[in-house]
């Protein structure tokens, strides 16, 4: 009786695994399963003493790195918004040929235009459209920071001259 039950269980499992719906679900999540399997194998090997602990730590960090990888596309934008640039701070231009951030803490029209991706003399609608587009991506409710949102708002206010 136990053999019959085991055989029935194996047949049901195979039917489930070979179904198109399960295969589609698995195909969408395959990278996560692969990284998880690598992590489990690495942990088992590390516990058994057959894997160096450094490789185990790297393998354990892979799922976190995988989840954070899409955020890498925001790095140039974050660097531009925070004003961090390569080169010396002073009256010289940076290595990329742009002026350094203003020293008195106030944003210039040129910096505001660069931040929003518009010309310094852009019209009201263009400034508002650029501000809206960037805020949709960088608002704190959508994963951005308060600082970035404040910089975008400051750039909008500088370009609009206090009028909205």
From TrEMBL:
Keyword list, A-Z: Chaperone, Membrane, Transmembrane, Transmembrane helix
Please name the Gene3D superfamilies in this protein's record: DnaJ domain
Q: Give me the ranges of the annotated region Disordered.
A: 86-108
Q: Which InterPro entries match?
A: DnaJ_domain (IPR001623), J_dom_sf (IPR036869)
Instruction: Respond yes or no to whether keyword Chaperone is given for this record.
Output: yes
Q: Chief localization class?
A: membrane
Which residues span the membrane? 33-66
Subcellular location field: Membrane
This protein's record includes keyword Lyase: no
- Looking at the record, the residues that make up the J domain are 111-164
Concerning SUPFAM superfamilies, the annotation shows: Chaperone J-domain (SSF46565)
Looking up PROSITE patterns in the UniProt record yields:
DNAJ_2
* Signal peptide (from-to): none
Q: Highest taxon of the source?
A: Bacteria
List the membrane topology term(s): Single-pass membrane protein
Q: Name one GO cellular component term.
A: membrane
The family line of this record is:
Belongs to the TIM14 family.
Protein name in the entry: J domain-containing protein
């Amino acid at each position: 009786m136990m053999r019959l039950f085991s055989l029935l269980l194996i047949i049901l499992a195979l039917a489930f695994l070979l179904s198109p719906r399960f295969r589609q679900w698995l195909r969408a999540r395959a990278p996560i399963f692969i990284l998880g399997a690598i992590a489990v194998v690495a942990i088992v090997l590390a516990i058994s003493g057959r894997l160096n602990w450094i490789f185990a730590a790297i393998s354990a960090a892979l799922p976190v790195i995988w989840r954070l990888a899409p955020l890498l596309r925001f790095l140039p934008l974050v660097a531009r918004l925070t004003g961090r640039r390569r080169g010396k701070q002073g009256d010289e231009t940076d290595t990329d040929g742009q002026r350094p951030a203003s020293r008195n803490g106030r944003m210039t029209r040129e910096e505001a235009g660069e931040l929003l991706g518009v010309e310094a003399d852009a019209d009201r609608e263009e400034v508002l459209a650029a501000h809206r587009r960037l805020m949709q991506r960088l608002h704190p409710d959508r994963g951005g920071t308060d600082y970035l949102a404040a910089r975008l708002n400051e750039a909008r206010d500088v370009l609009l001259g206090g009028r909205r």
